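ok here's M18 family aminopeptidase, seq below lol
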Amino acid sequence: MTTTSALSSSPAVPSRTARATAQDLGAFVTASPSAFHAVQETARRLREAGFTPLQETDHWSAQDVTGDRYVIRDGSIIAWSTPGGADATTAWRIVGSHTDSPALKLKPNPELRHEELSQVGVEIYGGPLLNSWLDRELRLAGLLTLTGGRRALVATPPVLRVPQLAVHLDRAVNKDGLQLDPQRHMQPIVGIGEVDVRALLAAHADPLDESGHPATDDTPLDPIDPDDIVGFDVVTVDAQAPALFGADEEFLASARLDNLSSVHAETQALITVAGSERGEGAPIALLVANDHEEVGSASRSGAAGPFLEDVLVRMHAALGGDDSSRRRAFASSMVLSADAGHAAHPNYPERHDPVTRPRLGEGPMLKINAQQRYATDAVGIAAFAAACEQAGVPHQHFVSNNAMPCGSTIGPITATRLGMTTIDVGITLLSMHSAREMCATVDPLLLQQASAAFLHG
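and the structure came out like this:
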């Protein structure tokens, strides 16, 4: 497969292709204010590329699982491209990521009042940098469940703000640091006087049809009555649009780069592979994007749940396999878990390993950890290095400072559930878990190219 360099003739200046890819990632983020929206945007791109949906509740035949397909479970999606001639001996090449990001999540009884101001009650979802959510206009986005089993996606315009206390009322803040109590200090303001939050959500909701896709113009559905809202999974979202910046626009600033940068790269990689020629014996190329990674993955749509294994078992059975052949196919399969990681911060060099110092703009990094917080091993390192070489993509390494324990990903969980060789990678970020993160403009394209080469096998 041929690739286009992410850099122009000057090493510091992103190429036109890299800029276009970064801007397309920005469009993907804008269309994906919640995990549920990210799944729908991924599905929309897949449908445009010729993929067709399956329902988990239907019987799957060999014809159903052959070709380019996808299936949705809540805030997660699995999609695959089965090459011609695939059977029960065919292995998988899997790329994985997660659709959720740290946020403030709406409580079930969200209306709060303080004197004349209306606020909304929120919980802390994941591990956000709380101070980064202050003094920003915020949207609400997520899923509504309605009477009669209906569902709807909701995405409001900017309606919220968490105002910081003025320096005149906290004279020591710049010397002693900002101290935020998640309950007292993080409840956003939504209006003056009484505000009906359910009415606000209903006014900006779009119904889903019976298959779980957005209703089309020729599918008449009744408008949503606020009293029909039974429950919701709704988070706050930074309203500022993604943007390129820097002396040569070598950086991208955006919300939710952790981890929509990986979902976008792997979606586009799967589309590329599905549209390419693959030789005899090519693996099944599969994408999984799980929800709830930021809170431990322990859900029916998270990596610790059964979604991926359910789909693989059903695919293999439809292709004529049994338990023994499936386990053999698993043993020859491989997973690339992509999740954004830390670039070495120029203002805090002591927080990183003194030797291994990942940099912005130098390609995806292999994440390695002796405590198995990342699943990468020597076999996986060789496989990813080969994919990068095939794609003409540079790569680097990440290890933590021994005094700074690292986070984890879907990688170790997926490896534990399936027994497949699993590799943890990701692009480098600064400001990770901020309401607005940053990466190098070239890196989304490099991850996309490496992922496509990996899927080719």
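fwiw The two ends are 12 Å apart (CA to CA). kinda neat tbh
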